Amino acid sequence: MSEASPAKAYALHLGIIALLFALSFILPEYYHGLLARIMVLAVFAMGYNMLFGYVGLLSLGHAMFFGAGLYGAGLAIIQLGWSVPAALAAGLACGAVLSLVIGLLALRTTGVAFMIVTMMFAQVFYLLILYFATWTGGDQGMVVPQPARVLNFGATSLDLTDPTVRYICALTLFSLVLLITLSIVRSRHGRVLVAIRENEERTKMLGYDTYSNKLAAVVVSGTICAASGAAYALLFGYVGSSFASVQYSILPLLWVLLGGAATTLGPLIGTVFMYYVIDITSGYTSAYLLIVGIALILLVLFFPKGILGTIRQRWLRWLP
Amino acid sequence: MTPLLSTRGLSRHFGGLRAVDNVDFTLMPGEIRAVIGPNGAGKTTFVSLVSGRIQPSSGAIIFDGDDITGLPAYARVRRGIAYTFQITSVFANLSAYANVALPVQLTLSDRRSAGAIKAGVMSALERTGLADRADMPAGQLSYGHQRLLEVAMGLALKPRLLILDEPTQGLADSEIDNFIALVREIARDATVLLIEHNMPVVMQLAHRITVFNAGKILAEGTPGQIRENAAVQEAYLGTAPRSKRT
Predict the structure, then answer these.
(1) Interface confidence (ipTM) of the complex
(2) Number of domains present in the structure of chain B
(3) Core-most of A71, A97, A288, B129, by most CB within 10 Å?
(4) Any idea where the domains of chain A sit in the sequence?
(5) B138: distance to nearest CA of chain A, Å?
(6) Cα distance from B219 to chain A (closest Cα, Å)?
(7) If chain B, 246 residues long, is cut into consecutive pieces of 10 residues, what is the mean pLDDT of each piece?
(8) Is A65 in contact with A225 (CB distance < 8 Å)?
(9) Does B19 map to a domain?
């Protein structure tokens, strides 16, 4: 949090990215695919953390931003026949516009009311997907056909269904978003966001328009989540309404809480942890959710600030 | 000379309570003005109206020739009105450094290096004697130091008008002496509006004193004039010693 050691923080983040890159060559096929998925979903968690961790606004409707990217990209490619980059841009644009509109409306409230308002808007979004089943495929969802998931650069083309290409694309998006979050958090704007979380009234009396700062954070958060959704549609080829359901509003909250709210790397750690606990326990018992639940309770009891949040508090105060 | 701050017919009613009632107030640049009055006289409500934390029921506030009545609080801060809270409200989880960095970065309009922020922060911390505690979380500072940190945050805004709401409340006597020296130093570049209960502090610092009672200005004058004012004595003591009747 202090001004010290920017080099250390950047070195750590670049090291994590390098490690993930190296894992691409080491991991067996199954975990290779799982980690690609985790990185895309960790982007979702990072977007959520931007608002929840740093600004302290607890949204229960972020599935709609993930969904906006997912359906924005998916519909563009399936219904309009757009190319992969255009579909990605469409997904991002949908997320940005939706988060701006939702921000303008929901930021009139705070606290519990904000949670309820965002959850209601997400429900509306979810029901709209079901209602317009002719285009969206309703609760069946849509599959993005394999021939459409190819990136063309002049003569060369990249097949996004190829595991290695997919992994590298997921890693690229993850790295970009990680470095963007890190630079936002370290910026003046980031300092204002934390101040709003700590004491909004005081922040106003230091000359900051807290509403505009919060609105900017909602749009950045929503757009990052939409990037995750768009990438999911393009890399994994499935666009389904369950991704816009309330479950996918709760999951990023869980991932962030587990990894450590208001830490840049917490969302990744939380997402990895959750996926691997589910993966390992479901190999032993069909009651794996029981074990996941116990693990969550233990974490909340002994690591109330999440894994990385606790590490920062006890040992590494310089962690961003 | 044009006044730095003036209010015309400024009122704020809470239901039937006239917390601030039709107040005409003028403050000249460079002044140290103390606002005193019994509890509930409307002092804090008055400065909250000036700083924009609450909106008036009626009346106008003019700062440096411009009507700022409709401006939100943050815009008034940017114009140079800084307010330090009566109840200490530093960012307890952030370091003292980060607390002061927020107001400092506001005053740096262009995108200068982090060095400019650092210099600004350290200068404000040094003026308040907190430089060696820059890395401590504000919540772990002693109460007196938290009050000083509040002042440092106000100072860092480079205000033209600094409003101090009961700054010496809860300070030890030794700390109060340092505080008086600090306010005198601040007053060389800024106008100071001071709400204060501690009369020795008021008498030492203020150029002029405004006395509030029941939402209205009861009296205004130099410390000497206020000390001799019978109406003031009555408001404070319930009865004026020299006009005792039965």
Answers:
(1) 0.85
(2) 1
(3) A71
(4) 6-245
(5) 12
(6) 29
(7) 92 90 94 91 92 93 94 94 84 92 83 77 91 92 89 91 89 86 90 91 93 91 88 70 49
(8) yes
(9) no
